[in-house]
């Protein structure tokens, strides 16, 4: 006998868990994750920084809303999710100007050197500062979503890779691991595997592309001060931030990949160490650990949240790129509203009434994401 739910979410990363906690208690929800543990892939390999000036306008809008929602949630948590940590962008005048937004103010090179004394004079000619940026305690946030979802009655099943999914009558029939499920709405929150899951479900893929992004924890001779900003090169050649007495570093690469359990490639971290030792006085002495995550993007670089154009009850929550955590609460809020509206009107799932400007920008039906 298949277990029946109003909503079945496929994917146990930040997107799926955020939505599960937003929906639980308002309808019956189950979440299935292929791995034995939740948030195994990209969600456990985040830079843990929420940056209002980062990304296209709709992403910045979602980031501001996410920060509002997480700040309210922090009041109920013994350990906060958010910690103020500014974001400093450096580079040439043209590079910084092209990457800056309304959330970022231009500052002098001298001021940038004061904020991050590890930067070497003469290595950049312009800077911008986002003082509304926050560090994110990703494990605390993920665990809070899990606990809230379970407490409100959601079922979370790990080690359950989906092997079959088909539209049946007014809903979906799904096989995952050794269990069967029936659901009115099937949510594709499968991250780098989102297109693969769509094809498995008989749904046309959107052309979502995973990209590699490597990071490492480095031991340094001169640790950054406690209040140091996160620093990023405007040409996307590196970023770094304090991580206790160590430093988190990344080459900010964006290399196409298939969906996989990504690992660092030989030479990537070594070249990054050479670059940072030329740009800073950190004095990187060793790499404690390194990892690679996949940032999955739509063709227009904007996340996807909405019902499929042709497959009734199939909801896309994917393509978050590098904005997964910083848009997560707002994306879950919007997705929950749309899914609940679809539950109330099964005849036109999620499409009743005029869509908001944000919903239109994220819609799975928009032409700009068809590769």
Structural class: alpha+beta
Overall body shape = elongated
Number of beta strands: 20
Percentage of helical residues?
25-40%
**Overall residue-averaged pLDDT value:** 94
Keyword list:
alpha+beta, 9-stranded mixed sheet, single chain
Task: Please characterize this protein's 3D structure.
The chain is α+β, with helices and mostly antiparallel strands. It has 9 helices and 20 strands. The protein has helices spanning 14-23, 57-74, 93-99, 109-115, 138-151, 194-200, 268-279, 324-344, 357-362, and strands at residues 3-10, 29-32, 49-50, 82-84, 87-91, 105-107, 126-130, 134-136, 155-157, 162-168, 171-176, 179-188, 209-220, 230-233, 239-243, 246-250, 255-256, 284-297, 304-307, 314-318. The strands form 3 sheets. Strands 5, 6, 7, 13, 14, 15, 16, 17 and 18 form a 9-stranded mixed sheet that branches. Helix 1 (14-23) runs parallel beside helix 5, helix 1 crosses helix 8 (324-344) and helix 2 (57-74) crosses helix 8. The longest helix has 21 residues, at 324-344.
Please sum up the structure shown:
By secondary structure, the protein is of the alpha+beta class. It is built from nine helices and 20 strands.
Note the topology.
Elements: E1 3-10, H1 14-23, E2 29-32, E3 49-50, H2 57-74, E4 82-84, E5 87-91, H3 93-99, E6 105-107, H4 109-115, E7 126-130, E8 134-136, H5 138-151, E9 155-157, E10 162-168, E11 171-176, E12 179-188, H6 194-200, E13 209-220, E14 230-233, E15 239-243, E16 246-250, E17 255-256, H7 268-279, E18 284-297, E19 304-307, E20 314-318, H8 324-344, H9 357-362
Helix pairs in contact: 1-5, 1-8, 2-8
């Amino acid at each position: 006998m298949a277990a029946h739910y109003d909503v079945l979410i496929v994917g146990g990363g930040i997107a799926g868990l955020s939505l599960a906690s937003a929906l639980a208690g308002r309808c019956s929800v189950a979440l299935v994750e292929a791995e034995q543990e939740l948030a195994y892939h990209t969600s456990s390999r985040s830079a843990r920084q929420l940056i209002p000036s980062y990304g296209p306008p709709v992403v910045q809008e979602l980031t501001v809303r996410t920060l509002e929602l997480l700040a309210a949630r922090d009041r109920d948590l013994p350990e906060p999710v958010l910690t103020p940590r500014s974001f400093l962008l450096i580079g040439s005048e043209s590079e910084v100007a092209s990457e800056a937004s309304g959330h970022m103010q231009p500052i002098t090179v001298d001021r940038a050197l004061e904020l991050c004394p590890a930067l070497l004079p003469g290595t950049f000619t312009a800077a911008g500062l986002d003082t509304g940026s926050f560090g994110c305690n990703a494990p605390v946030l993920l665990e809070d979503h899990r606990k809230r979802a379970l407490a409100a009655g959601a079922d979370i099943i790990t080690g359950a890779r989906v092997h079959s999914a088909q539209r049946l009558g007014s809903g979906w029939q799904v096989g995952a691991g050794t269990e069967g499920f029936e659901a009115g709405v099937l949510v594709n929150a499968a991250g780098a595997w989102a297109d693969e899951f769509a094809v498995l479900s008989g749904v046309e893929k959107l052309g979502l592309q995973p990209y590699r992004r490597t990071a490492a924890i480095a031991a340094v001779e001169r640790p950054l001060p406690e209040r140091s900003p996160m620093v990023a090169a405007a040409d996307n050649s590196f970023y770094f931030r304090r991580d206790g007495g160590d430093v988190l570093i990344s080459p900010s690469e964006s290399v196409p990949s298939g969906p996989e359990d990504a690992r660092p490639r030989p030479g990537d971290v070594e070249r990054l160490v050479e670059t940072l030792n030329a740009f800073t006085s950190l004095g990187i002495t060793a790499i404690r650990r390194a990892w690679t995550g996949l940032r999955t993007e739509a063709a227009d670089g904007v996340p996807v949240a909405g019902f499929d154009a042709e497959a009734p009850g199939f909801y896309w929550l994917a393509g978050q790129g590098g904005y997964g955590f910083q848009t997560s609460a707002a994306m879950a809020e919007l997705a929950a509203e749309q899914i609940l509206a679809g539950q109330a009107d099964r005849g036109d799932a999620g499409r009743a009434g005029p869509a908001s400007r944000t919903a239109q920008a994220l819609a799975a039906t928009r032409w700009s994401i068809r590769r």
